[in-house]
């Protein structure tokens, strides 16, 4: 067996893990499965592409690759702007759709079905604006470096692993060391008690939407940079994202990241062991197994 | 009697607009009082105090705190206005540590003052100071109640409302909890207490109010209510009242 599956799995797992952190945060605080979360990955990637394109139009020097990477300064600058824009998009979807259901005290199934509708609308809008033709941040070729142990990775791939690690550590520190992080955990455990403990629950909900969307944007850009950008980019990752969020334990940031890496590695292993056509089934098998054996996941709290 | 610090006027509240549980309550508490709210099960005591805290929808009437209308103020703003509430159950964040529970409580203070505020709470509740990194969910019933009260007192509120703080506690711990409430009141905090433990509650109260079917049925001094056999029999489940119970 070629050990390269480890590197492939870690890279795919980092993307899944970042997306899953957003899923686990929104699920634990908003208390419904947001099936539109995948679209935030796609929108993040396309928004970064659009901003990078505009920056490249304004200054061609910004598209010149920064050695040893395949992209120029336009991408990191556009990533920062896209993170903000994706966050605002999530807030707009919440304000237009989900907040009215919350005010009415709608059942969870209504929120879930609304998220399906939002998913379809957001994806169709992307196809309308950007067409369904694949797009790329860069078409520059990169030579993979030998890392030892039969592993190879491109500088872009190693950078993305580093970005994912920094993002998860930052979110973990935010959740455990800051007022807003403690407030998010408090609302996740008991929204009514949180409100009488002086926490502005609506502000926490807005923060969670923004943070989840920001992480989805980073994951979407990573996927777009390392593979390609398509309107179905996020939708196709939805099952692995939910599988990772549940395997990690709902509400656990490190759990979601670790579970994302596990799922990425299992998928890469499955590609070598049984063939690429079984890759998508891996998340489903893991999801079913976790729900049967340990529904609270690796780091979830017992109810 | 001094001007009321907390009052409600014709308050109607309940989870459904067409099924009010609180049915028009005119009620007030003066600064420094310790008022106990008594009544049979289903009288609307807990719903009434939850409505004051902002956890149950209000359908009619008004509510004032320190002369300010807080009828439709959100629960977290009421905390900032000086109204603290300790629910009967699930009154601490069980998955968080003692310290984190208190850090949440002092988050409204300027950062420079938070450390001193937490130290002051630990000095007041030494049991909590022993292991601040302990998960609140691992605490005993009495310790949880202390943590819940400490959280509520973190911002030095002028008014604290407690919903059956003695529920589920052993008699020894109940006695400690009531001593604590008496001390809090003696420190100048106005206390509104919902209780099923009639004897202990009347013993520390400065005034008692009896609710029945979502309305005020009786109110008066604890001695009067405790010695009224009719009140005891109908509303408090005691055949002969509580002669001599109040201190």
TrEMBL record, chain A:
Location(s) in or outside the cell: Cell membrane
Pfam families in alphabetical order: BPD_transp_2
CDD domains assigned: TM_PBP1_LivH_like (cd06582)
UniProt keyword terms in alphabetical order: Amino-acid transport, Cell inner membrane, Cell membrane, Membrane, Transmembrane, Transmembrane helix, Transport
Topology in the lipid bilayer: Multi-pass membrane protein
InterPro entries attached to this UniProt entry: ABC_transp_permease (IPR001851), BCAA_transport_permease (IPR052157)
GO molecular function: L-isoleucine transmembrane transporter activity; L-leucine transmembrane transporter activity; L-phenylalanine transmembrane transporter activity; L-valine transmembrane transporter activity
Protein family per UniProt: Belongs to the binding-protein-dependent transport system permease family. LivHM subfamily.
Protein name as it appears in the record: Branched-chain amino acid ABC transporter permease
Organism: Rhizobium straminoryzae
TrEMBL record, chain B:
Every ABC transporter domain range: 6-238
Record keywords, A-Z: Amino-acid transport, ATP-binding, Nucleotide-binding, Transport
Stretch forming the signal peptide: none
UniProt record, GO biological process: L-amino acid transport
KW ATP-binding (keyword) present: yes
SUPFAM superfamilies: P-loop containing nucleoside triphosphate hydrolases
Gene Ontology MF: a single term: ATP binding
CDD domains given in the database record: ABC_TM1139_LivF_branched (cd03224)
InterPro entries: AAA+_ATPase (IPR003593), ABC_transporter-like_ATP-bd (IPR003439), ABC_transporter-like_CS (IPR017871), BCAA_Transport_ATP-bd_LivF (IPR052156), P-loop_NTPase (IPR027417)
Protein family membership: Belongs to the ABC transporter superfamily.
Name of this protein: ABC transporter ATP-binding protein
């Amino acid at each position: 067996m070629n050990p390269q599956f480890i590197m492939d799995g870690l890279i795919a797992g980092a993307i899944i893990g970042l997306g899953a952190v957003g899923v686990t945060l929104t699920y634990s605080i908003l208390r419904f499965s947001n099936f539109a979360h995948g679209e935030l990955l796609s929108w993040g990637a396309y928004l970064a592409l659009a901003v990078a394109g505009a920056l490249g139009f304004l200054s061609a020097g910004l598209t010149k690759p920064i050695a040893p990477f395949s992209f120029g300064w336009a991408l990191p600058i556009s990533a920062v702007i896209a993170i903000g824009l994706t966050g605002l998009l999530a807030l707009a979807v919440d304000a237009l759709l989900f907040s009215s259901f919350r005010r009415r005290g709608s059942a969870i199934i209504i929120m879930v079905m609304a998220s399906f509708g939002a998913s379809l609308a957001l994806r169709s809008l992307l196809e309308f604006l950007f067409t369904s033709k694949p797009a790329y941040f860069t078409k520059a070729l990169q030579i993979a470096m030998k890392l030892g142990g039969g592993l190879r990775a491109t500088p872009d791939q190693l950078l993305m692993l580093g970005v994912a690690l920094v993002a998860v550590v930052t979110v973990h520190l935010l959740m455990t060391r800051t007022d807003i992080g403690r407030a998010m955990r408090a609302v996740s455990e008991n929204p009514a008690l949180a409100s009488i403990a002086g926490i502005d629950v609506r502000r926490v909900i807005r923060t969670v939407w923004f943070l989840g969307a920001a992480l989805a944007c980073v994951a979407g850009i990573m996927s777009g940079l390392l593979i390609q950008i398509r309107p179905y980019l996020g939708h196709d990752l939805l099952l692995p994202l939910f599988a990772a969020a549940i395997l990690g334990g709902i509400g656990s940031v490190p759990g979601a990241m670790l579970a994302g890496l596990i799922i990425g590695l299992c998928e890469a292993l499955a590609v070598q062991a049984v063939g690429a056509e079984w890759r998508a089934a891996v998340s489903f098998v893991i999801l079913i197994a976790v729900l049967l054996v340990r529904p609270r996941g690796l780091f979830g709290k017992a109810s | 009697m001094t001007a009321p610090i907390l009052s409600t006027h014709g308050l109607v509240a309940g989870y459904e607009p067409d099924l009010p549980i609180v049915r028009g309550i005119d009620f007030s508490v003066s600064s420094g009082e310790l008022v106990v709210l008594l009544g049979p099960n289903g009288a609307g005591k807990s719903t009434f105090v939850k409505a004051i805290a902002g956890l149950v929808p209000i359908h009619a009437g008004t509510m004032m705190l320190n002369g300010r209308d807080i009828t439709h103020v959100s629960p977290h703003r009421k905390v900032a206005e000086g109204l603290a509430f300790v629910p009967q159950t699930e009154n601490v964040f069980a998955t968080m540590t003692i310290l984190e529970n208190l850090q949440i409580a002092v988050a409204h203070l300027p950062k420079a003052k938070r450390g001193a505020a937490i130290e002051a709470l630990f000095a007041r509740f030494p049991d909590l100071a022993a292991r601040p990194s302990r998960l609140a969910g691992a605490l005993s019933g009495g310790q949880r109640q202390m943590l819940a009260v400490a959280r509520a007192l973190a911002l030095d509120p002028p008014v604290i409302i407690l919903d059956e703080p003695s529920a589920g506690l052993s008699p020894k711990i109940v006695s400690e909890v009531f001593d604590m409430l008496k001390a809090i009141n003696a420190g100048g905090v106005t206390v509104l207490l919902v209780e099923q433990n009639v004897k202990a509650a009347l013993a520390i109260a400065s005034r008692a109010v009896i609710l029945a079917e979502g309305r005020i049925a009786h109110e008066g001094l604890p001695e009067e209510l405790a010695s009224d056999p009719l009140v005891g029999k109908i509303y408090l489940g005691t055949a002969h009242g509580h002669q001599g119970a109040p201190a």
